[in-house]
Amino acid sequence: MSLSKNTIKLITSLRQKKYRQKHNLFVAEGVKVVNELLSSSLKIFKIYTTSIDVLQKSNNVELITEDELKKVSNLKAPNKVLGIFEIPSEKEIDTNNFIVALDEVNDPGNLGTIIRLCDWFGVKQLVCSKNTVDCYNPKVIQSTMGSLTRVNIVYTDLISFLGKNNLPTYTADMDGENVYSSKLPEKAVLVMGNEANGISEEVNNVVQQKLTIPRFGNIQQTESLNVATATAILLSEFKRGLK
Amino acid sequence: MSLSKNTIKLITSLRQKKYRQKHNLFVAEGVKVVNELLSSSLKIFKIYTTSIDVLQKSNNVELITEDELKKVSNLKAPNKVLGIFEIPSEKEIDTNNFIVALDEVNDPGNLGTIIRLCDWFGVKQLVCSKNTVDCYNPKVIQSTMGSLTRVNIVYTDLISFLGKNNLPTYTADMDGENVYSSKLPEKAVLVMGNEANGISEEVNNVVQQKLTIPRFGNIQQTESLNVATATAILLSEFKRGLK
User: Taking the CB of residue A231, how many other CB atoms lie within 10 A of it?
Assistant: First the structure.
């Protein structure tokens, strides 16, 4: 029996933000995701696995049984590995390149998808409002597929950040300029908002430019786009001229 | 007590495809989604609500308690209404317009997002391989936010469909033509594949054109894009010249 009660308690406690902050640790699961994190500069606290063979690195590894993994896993179908990593300290915001900023994005899947999109489109800086879902939330970690370590994510007061930075600021809006005919700069801050309410009024007041993804469906019936798909389309528009 | 044991059994059985097919019924939940479906041409089987006031139509409605709703709801946070609707009969495939085709998309959230994208971009026809997740799956219904009724969805043998239709066929591929510099036709079939494996070899053999969304991130590390975000970007590219 290699997993002590205290270890089990520690691992499951890390599903909650307050314990992740207390211990400065987070959990990642599955062969692919853990191996991606092992190949990054993240500090390993401990890796638990049912099979050493699936791992790219073998330091700090402890073999456990499938039953033990089930006990601590947050996945419906646990996948051989659970890794505990140290949360790295936040780096300064790089304001000299394209930035994606999020205003109260709540859904972990959406944040995970947006981190992957940043990675794909070479966006190295993601700025999140303090009430955006924590990027070390297990569901975010699982959906980023490892791209988390290649994007610098900073949680800060969004209004004050937007007030201080010198890049042009953009957001998505139903009544903005058609994004397909807009001349978009290479460096900018693209601010995306909450799933239900979009960006807050305060943020809206400081964002300079509103972009619209034209709707082709009939009349006004079509629901707005999901924040992750809207981010995909807008990032693609900002970047398409560069390739 | 208005919900009989048999009713509870019927409603919860509809989470499974075989019972949806047996009864030809599906479930939708929440004020917004149910009202969207009520305003469509779908036939109502029964609506259960904790508050008549939230509904746009009041035929076939039965008032239930919050506890009763909790018993039959598939949501973590039940939202006032659960509607049972008849599954409409499949219409013929409209091969005279832009078509999105899916090859074994498994994740209900991805299918829901893709249906919303079709609706947004005015794509009226979605063709799914028989092993694509059922569009009346409760998670699909919840994530389409009502756009389901504005897109004609047909499940069929994809190879045979692709062989018969006369539109040019496209898919996403790592080694295709840069989508940003491709001249794309107004009418086409865009085939998107499975989350883990992409399109099957058989489908790949009959698709004529491969499109690549260029990767801006460093080297080969970046994971591939999620199928829903890739669909968003490609649909945007097909349609952007038209607005």
Answer: 26
pLDDT at residue B1 above 60?
Answer: no
Smallest CA-to-CA distance from B239 within B131, B141, B111, B97 is with B97
Residues A221-243: tens digit of each pLDDT:
666 789 999 999 999 999 998 87
Cβ-contact B121, A223 below 8 angstroms? no
Of the candidates A99, A92, A93, A94, the one whose C-alpha atom is nearest the C-alpha of residue A187 is A99
- Interface residues of chain B, partner chain A, Cβ below 8 Å: 109, 113, 116-117, 119-123, 145-147, 150, 178, 180-181, 213-218, 221-223, 225-226, 228-229, 232-233, 236-237, 239-243
In this structure, the strands spanning A25-29 and A125-129 are unpaired
Closest chain B C-alpha to A1 CA, distance in angstroms: 35
φ, ψ of residue A82 to 5 degrees: the values are -130, 125
Closest C-alpha to B142, from B102, B104, B113: B113
User: Over the Cα atoms of chain A, what is R_g?
Assistant: 20
Tell me, what's the pLDDT at A144? Answer: 87
Q: Between the CA of residue B191 and those of A73, B137, B161, what are the distances in Å?
A: 35, 21, 12
Q: What is the 3-state secondary structure (H, E, C) of B42-99?
A: CCEEEEEECCHHHCCCCCCEEECCHHHHHHHCCCCCCCCEEEEEECCCCCCCCCCCCE
- What 3-state class would DSSP assign to B13? helix
Residues B177-191 have pLDDT tens digits of 999 999 999 999 999
Which positions in chain A touch B225 (Cβ < 8 Å)?
116-117, 120, 232
Q: Model ipTM?
A: 0.91
| Dihedral, CA of residue A170, residue A174, residue A179 and residue A183, to nearest 10 | -50
Interatomic CA distance for residues B243 and B239, integer angstroms: 7
Q: What is the CATH number of domain A5-86?
A: 3.30.1330.30
Domains A5-86 and A99-242 are alike in CATH topology: no
Neighbours of A225 (CB within 10 A): 22
| Residues paired with residue A81 on neighbouring β-strands, in sequence order | A49
Cβ contact B80:B51 at 8 Å: yes
User: Which chain B residues are closer than 8 Å to A123 by Cβ?
Assistant: 216
CA distance A3 to chain B (A): 31
Alpha helices in chain B (DSSP H): 5-13, 17-23, 31-38, 66-72, 108-120, 138-144, 158-164, 201-206, 227-239
Please tell us whether the domain made up of A99-242 is placed in CATH 3.40.50.720: no
Rounded Cα distance between B26 and B87, Å, is: 6
The domain ranges of chain B are 5-86, 99-242
| DSSP strand pairing (B81-86 vs B44-49) | antiparallel
**Nearest CA to B170 among B92, B181, B162, B152?**
B162
